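Below is a filled-in request sheet from our internal design queue. Each sheet records the structural input a requester submitted and the sequence that came back. We keep these sheets so that new team members can see what a complete request looks like end to end.

REQUESTER: design group, bay 2
PRIORITY: normal
MODE: inverse folding
CHAIN LENGTH: 299
BACKBONE (tokenized):
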């Protein structure tokens, strides 16, 4: 039986998991549907050195988890790829090719443990060219989905919240239990899929309900839109709470008096955009997940 206590949502999108998600979506590029804007952007900007990544995913039609460790920091994730055991890498590739010969170019491209400079350079260049311009939108879509999932758990319980994903979760865990991380992705346009990683962790990837915008949003566009919604002062407070702080420090950051800052914080807290935690005689203000979504400018 699945341990509901082992299920959690990923705290943030993970760069190489989103890279793998997007490569699968790009390999099926149709220039239609909710991802058509991003697909056109990525197809036009795909670096030459990253082309083997797309060819590999197209050939294998397989999860290929060795290029997508569940790590939220890109540089560390790339180091994990470089150090991935050969047995894991070639085991996945042999399974993907199902007895067929693995092409020589792919053997050379993937490399061996500690000698995967071509593979890691391709992953980095692909992320920078195709995902980084949209990364604020990817993050906002992920955060919005986490907020909705949390609401569902609060209202109906974990079992009900994960029911749409139950089959995907149970199938890979049939041979044994393990931690389950839900990873909603704005860059995945297929059915929910479970990917098992080293250490027994199961990552369940599924599409977010809100699509990516046709073009990546810009910081200035997000700032203007938020100021129109909240007003300049409260928008400035949200911007200055990307790093949580107390009222005195916040008043200094936005150059307002303490009483005025407290009044605005009270309004933002009442609307669910800011949370305040009291620690002894001090308070600490921080953005809620909803505040993060608004700040990121999800459209």
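RETURNED SEQUENCE:
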């Amino acid at each position: 039986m699945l341990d509901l206590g082992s299920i959690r949502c990923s705290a943030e999108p993970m760069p190489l998991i989103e890279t793998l998600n997007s490569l699968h979506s790009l390999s099926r590029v149709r220039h239609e549907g909710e991802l058509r804007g991003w697909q056109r952007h990525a197809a036009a900007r795909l670096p030459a050195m990253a082309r083997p990544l797309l060819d590999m995913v197209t050939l294998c039609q397989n999860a290929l988890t060795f290029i997508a460790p569940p790590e939220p920091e890109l540089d560390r994730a790339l180091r994990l790829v470089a150090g991935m055991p050969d047995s894991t890498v070639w085991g996945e590739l042999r399974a993907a090719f199902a007895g067929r010969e693995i092409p020589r170019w792919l053997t050379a491209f993937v490399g061996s443990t500690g000698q995967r400079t071509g593979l890691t350079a391709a992953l980095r260049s692909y992320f920078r060219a195709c995902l980084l311009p949209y990364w604020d939108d990817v993050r906002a879509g992920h955060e919005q989905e986490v907020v909705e999932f949390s609401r569902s758990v609060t209202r109906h319980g974990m079992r009900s919240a994960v029911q749409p994903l139950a089959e995907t979760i149970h199938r890979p865990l049939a041979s044994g239990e393990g931690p389950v991380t839900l990873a909603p992705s704005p860059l995945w346009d297929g059915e929910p899929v479970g990917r098992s990683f080293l250490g027994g962790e199961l990552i369940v990837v599924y599409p977010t309900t809100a699509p990516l915008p046709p073009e990546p949003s810009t910081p200035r566009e997000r700032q203007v839109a938020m100021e129109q919604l909240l007003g300049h002062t409260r928008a400035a407070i949200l911007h200055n709470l990307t790093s949580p702080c107390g009222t005195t420090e916040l008043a200094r950051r936005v150059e307002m008096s303490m009483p005025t800052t407290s009044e605005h914080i009270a309004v933002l807290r009442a609307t669910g955009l800011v949370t305040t935690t009291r620690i002894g005689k001090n308070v600490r203000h921080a953005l809620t997940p909803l505040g993060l979504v608004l700040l990121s400018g999800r459209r």
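SHEET NOTES:
- The chain has two domains: 4-207, 219-296.
- Confidence is low (pLDDT under 50) at residues 172-176.
FILED BY: M.R.
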